[in-house]
């Protein structure tokens, strides 16, 4: 009784497929105070029907988190609820085994059984899984699903005769045939080549929407995460850095790690910061004082001495320096160190006050290495990151 | 989001009535029941394996501290170091130790040189006839060591062995297989296939690019060999060497068949001699003490071996996509090298087997001759198969090998799965414990089991079951390692993908795990089958009137009745059965690759 009340107070469990509360995972036998945590005190929700991605560099704990959700690993602390049922609670020593959780999984290596035909792989969840069926409809449904994923003619081949992309599709078909509430995907595209990856990520997303299944997706590829997800959870060193929609993640990174990991960013260390006279934060950096007034809507910037000034390369204005006009506010002089012509744009590295600044600007300007330039960091495009 | 699909997820599909999950309360009760049953099974298995593995070791240690020469160790009160002092002060220790060292080191040198040469030639050079010669080099795998030793006794005995006669006539050298050099040579040749099997993959994995990378920076060939090739194959070579030392140390058939006639003792044959001397009065204490000595030596070797094997992982040479097999051209040495290899293979493998078959078809032991062809006879086979009690022997043998292979496989699968999947606390320890048995020479193991069942009132002494118990114990470490090796090569994702569909663990094991392991399981079963068939010392020590097996009959016929054609006929029968088993293993594995 109290449990449900607490849940209701904390978060809405009826619209969430997965609710993770203060999950911690340590691989050490005894979890003492200074134990290293692969997953360190993370909490997040996955709303029903949404596509949520765990994004981070290798070793950030994203796969461990996914495996804890699947029940393939036991977390050390915390709680996991799925579909309104507590499937893991360290405090109460409750652990629902993977076979009793409403999940399906596409592992990184696909886990296609080589001793079975394609159709037997696909039909396995219906024959031996959670929601078992019998009769001719098993084969019928499996065939329909294979057709949907584009493996119609392959049903009676051995699974090992499939190519990488086909195996990936088969793994997806098999997962969906288990009628899961939550689909767990562990870097399912990482073993494929770049073109196939781009194609399959669109397919994957459209299947997920078509079947209305909740998806929790793990990847280290930020492009994949941005392209597919409703919500991205950026993880680093076992902790969550930011949970946001892809656009907000790019436009309003909340930490220097996120800014740097999603796209590219210029980050200047801040010595001290104060409130700007007309809003924003006036940050003192090695470049000089920079006014940062970009904030996410509804977000209040707290500043302290330290942190970073963040500006995307495409938001840095650049013009050749002229002797008479002194740089205005938020403008800095520098020298072009390298210039790379990339067809549609020009990528420069400008050194100013001994800091390298990456600038992405339109092509066709005469900005060779050695030229003196003026950089303009528009306050509206420049943000202050407290950490 | 599509509302219909969620509904399907939340409510059980109407047509899935039969196999639907029980309601939560029932589920947890069923689950509790299943867990309890699982725990019970695990506990029973731990006790069984622990009993099989540890009790013989304890018995051995126990009886080595019992001062007795004629009585059974359990009948002697108190403990003492008398056996050790007797062994260490005996004049025999020196000569036997010297013999053992010379025998083991000599056999190792022979096997090492031959197997490294063969592995290099077959894997790295363009020697002609590889596809025929390489399998031939492995053929002795199918020959039980007892059969091998008898074949060599026939082919190289000084009286009428064809090889001995040939060498005497051609080179004027008197060849006698009943000598220390003879034993060394036979053991060395016998050790070649298993060493080759461990070394050849190291050569095969040696990506030519590694050597080429050194060549392109201007390193001369000898330096390349020393700095690149040797370090990469060394772990495999030294691991194979350690294993051969253990096998030679505990191997009984060769020293017994070739050494005993001239009273050339090594540890293993001395133990058997102390337990079943011609005088008839067994010296159990002394046998146990020698057993402890071999065990200690073997364990040291095996520990080194394990370190080496662990190192091989570090040296694992990754073969990426760019791998291509390039072979060293032998040039004008191609034909001579091929000829030398062929002659070796003929002398080492074809000739002994031919002598065995020849003798089995002859009325009496005689060298090869054209004139002899006319008087070929099947009477030896007829005699063997019509002798009184042969039916019993065949039934006993079938019981022993079939039950041993099946039980060993079942236990091995359970141990390996429990260890890899960490089914319970200590499962890895259990797996490691079986490793100790590796170090127990089969003579020692046989005597430990003998002591145990002479004392413990379990009425299996004198039946085939006592042999089965000893053989299962003996083959458990190898069996569980074979299954273990196959298991760790399985991608975890394959099992996890099945678990997350909701299939229960038994279903996953039945439909995914065991089918994936099937080739390895067959291999393990047939391996145990073939080895159980030819395992002499255990059967010999535990034999009685009612549980004689083919290999014991072979031993008796060869050593006591000295009826060579009949012994050869028996050896050929054993050889045929084990060849069939090995052939099945190979056929299965090639089928799998195709």
UniProtKB/TrEMBL annotation, chain A:
Annotated SUPFAM superfamilies: MOP-like, P-loop containing nucleoside triphosphate hydrolases
UniProt cross-references to SMART domains, sorted A to Z: AAA
Residue stretches making up the ABC transporter domain: 18-262
Database matches in InterPro entries: AAA+_ATPase, ABC_transporter-like_ATP-bd, ABC_transporter-like_CS, ABC_transpr_MalK/UgpC-like, Mo/tungstate-bd_C_term_dom, P-loop_NTPase, Transp-assoc_OB_typ2
GO molecular function: ATP binding
Pfam families: ABC_tran (PF00005), TOBE_2 (PF08402)
Keyword Kinase belongs to the record: no
Keyword field: ATP-binding, Cell membrane, Membrane, Nucleotide-binding, Translocase, Transport
PANTHER family noted in UniProt: MALTODEXTRIN IMPORT ATP-BINDING PROTEIN MSMX, TREHALOSE IMPORT ATP-BINDING PROTEIN SUGC
Name this protein carries in UniProt: ABC transporter ATP-binding protein
Organism annotation: Streptomyces spinosisporus
From TrEMBL, chain B:
Biased composition range(s): Basic and acidic residues: 1-21
InterPro entries (UniProt xref): MetI-like (IPR000515), MetI-like_sf (IPR035906)
Swiss-Prot/TrEMBL keywords: Cell inner membrane, Cell membrane, Membrane, Transmembrane, Transmembrane helix, Transport
Domain ABC transmembrane type-1: 97-305, 394-585
Family annotation (PROSITE patterns): ABC_TM1 (PS50928)
Location in or out of the cell: Cell inner membrane; Cell membrane
Keyword Transmembrane: yes
Its membrane topology: Multi-pass membrane protein
Transmembrane intervals: 37-62, 101-121, 133-155, 183-204, 225-249, 287-305, 337-361, 393-417, 429-454, 460-477, 524-544, 564-585
Chief location bin: membrane
Positions of region (Disordered): 1-31
SUPFAM superfamilies: MetI-like
Family membership noted in the UniProt record: Belongs to the binding-protein-dependent transport system permease family.
Full protein name: Iron ABC transporter permease
Organism for this UniProt entry: Streptomyces spinosisporus
């Amino acid at each position: 009784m109290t449990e449900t009340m607490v849940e209701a107070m904390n978060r809405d469990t009826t619209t969430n497929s997965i609710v993770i509360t203060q999950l911690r995972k340590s691989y050490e036998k005894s979890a003492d105070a200074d134990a290293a945590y692969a997953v360190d005190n993370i909490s997040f929700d996955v709303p029903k029907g949404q596509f949520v991605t765990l994004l981070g560099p290798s070793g950030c704990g994203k796969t461990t988190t996914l495996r804890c959700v699947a029940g393939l690993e036991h977390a050390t602390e915390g709680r996991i609820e799925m579909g309104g049922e507590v499937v893991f609670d360290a405090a109460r020593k409750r652990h629902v085994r993977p076979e009793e959780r409403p999940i399906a999984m596409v592992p990184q290596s696909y886990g296609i059984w080589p001793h079975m035909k394609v159709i037997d792989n696909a039909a396995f969840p219906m024959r031996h899984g959670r929601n078992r069926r019998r009769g001719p409809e098993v084969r019928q449904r499996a065939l329909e699903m294979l057709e949907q994923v584009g493996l119609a003619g392959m049903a009676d081949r051995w699974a090992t005769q499939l190519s990488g992309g086909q195996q990936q599709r088969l793994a997806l078909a098999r997962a969906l045939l288990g009628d899961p509430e939550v689909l767990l995907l562990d870097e399912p595209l990482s073993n494929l080549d770049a073109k196939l990856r781009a194609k399959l990520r669109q397919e994957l997303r459209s299947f997920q929407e078509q079947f209305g299944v909740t998806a929790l997706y793990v990847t280290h590829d930020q492009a994949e995460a941005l392209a597919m997800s409703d919500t991205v959870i950026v993880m680093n060193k076992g902790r969550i850095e930011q949970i946001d929609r892809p656009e907000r993640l790019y436009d309003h990174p909340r930490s220097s790690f996120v800014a740097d990991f999603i796209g590219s960013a210029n980050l200047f260390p801040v010595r001290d910061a104060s409130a700007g006279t007309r809003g924003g934060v006036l940050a003192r950096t090695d470049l000089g004082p920079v006014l940062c007034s970009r904030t996410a809507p509804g977000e209040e910037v707290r500043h302290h001495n330290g942190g970073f000034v963040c500006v995307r390369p495409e938001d840095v204005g650049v013009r050749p320096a002229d002797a008479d006009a002194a740089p205005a506010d938020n403008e800095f002089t520098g020298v072009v160190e390298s210039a790379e012509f990339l067809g549609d744009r020009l990528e420069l590295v400008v050194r100013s006050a001994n800091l390298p600044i990456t600038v992405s600007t339109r092509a066709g300007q005469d900005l060779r290495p050695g030229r003196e330039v003026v950089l303009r960091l528009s306050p509206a495009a420049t943000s202050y990151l407290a950490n | 989001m599509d509302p219909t699909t969620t509904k399907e997820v939340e409510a059980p599909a109407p047509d899935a009535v039969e196999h639907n999950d029980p309601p939560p309360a029932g589920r947890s009760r069923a689950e509790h029941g299943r867990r309890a049953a699982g725990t019970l099974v695990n506990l029973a298995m731990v006790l069984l394996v622990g009993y099989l593995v540890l009790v013989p070791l304890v018995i051995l240690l126990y009886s080595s501290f019992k001062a007795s020469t004629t009585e059974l160790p359990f009948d002697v009160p108190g403990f003492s170091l008398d056996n050790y002092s007797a062994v260490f002060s005996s004049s025999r220790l020196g000569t036997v130790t010297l013999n053992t060292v010379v025998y083991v080191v000599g056999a190792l040198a022979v096997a090492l040189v031959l197997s490294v040469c063969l592995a290099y030639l077959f894997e790295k050079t363009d020697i002609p006839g590889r596809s025929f010669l390489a399998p031939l080099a492995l053929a002795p795998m199918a020959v039980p060591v007892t059969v091998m030793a008898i074949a060599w006794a026939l082919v190289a005995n000084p009286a009428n062995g064809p090889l001995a006669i040939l060498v005497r006539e051609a080179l004027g050298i008197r060849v006698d297989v009943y000598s220390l050099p003879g034993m060394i040579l036979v053991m060395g040749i016998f050790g070649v296939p298993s060493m080759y099997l461990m070394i050849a993959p190291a050569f095969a994995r040696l990506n030519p690019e590694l050597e080429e990378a050194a060549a392109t920076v201007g390193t001369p060939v000898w330096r390349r060999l020393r700095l690149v090739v040797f370090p990469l194959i060394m772990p495999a070579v030294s691991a194979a060497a350690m294993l051969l030392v253990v096998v030679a140390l505990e191997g009984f058939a060769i020293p017994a068949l070739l050494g005993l006639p001239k009273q050339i003792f090594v540890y293993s044959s001395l133990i058997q001699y102390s337990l079943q001397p011609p005088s008839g009065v067994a010296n159990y204490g002394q046998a146990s003490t020698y057993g402890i000595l071999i065990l200690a030596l073997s364990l040291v070797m095996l520990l080194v071996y394990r370190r080496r094997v662990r190192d091989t992982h570090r040296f694992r040479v990754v073969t990426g996509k760019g791998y291509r097999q390039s072979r060293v051209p032998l040039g004008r040495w191609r034909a001579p090298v091929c000829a030398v290899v062929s002659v070796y293979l003929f002398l080492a493998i074809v000739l002994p087997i031919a002598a065995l078959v020849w003798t089995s078809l002859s009325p009496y032991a005689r060298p090869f001759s054209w004139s002899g062809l006319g008087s070929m006879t099947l009477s030896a086979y007829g005699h063997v198969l019509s002798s009184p009690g042969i039916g019993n022997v065949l039934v006993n043998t079938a019981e022993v090998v079939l039950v041993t292979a099946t039980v060993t496989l079942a236990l091995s699968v359970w141990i390996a799965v429990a260890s890899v999947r960490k089914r319970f606390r200590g499962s890895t320890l259990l797996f490691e414990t079986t490793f100790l048995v590796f170090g127990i020479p089969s003579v020692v193991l046989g005597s430990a089991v003998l002591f145990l069942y002479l004392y413990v009132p379990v009425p299996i002494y004198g039946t085939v079951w006592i042999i089965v118990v000893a053989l299962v114990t003996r083959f458990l470490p190898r069996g569980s390692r074979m299954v273990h090796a196959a298991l760790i090569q399985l991608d975890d994702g394959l099992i996890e993908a099945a678990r997350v569909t909701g299939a229960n663990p038994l279903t996953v094991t039945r439909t995914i795990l065991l089918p994936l392991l099937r080739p390895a399981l067959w291999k393990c079963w047939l391996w145990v089958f073939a080895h159980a068939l030819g395992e002499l010392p255990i059967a010999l020590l535990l034999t009685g009137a009612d549980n004689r097996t083919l290999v014991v009959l072979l031993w008796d016929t060869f050593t006591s009745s000295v009826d060579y054609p009949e012994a050869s006929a028996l050896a050929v029968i054993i050889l045929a059965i084990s060849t069939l088993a090995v052939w099945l293993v190979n056929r299965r594995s090639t089928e799998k690759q195709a």
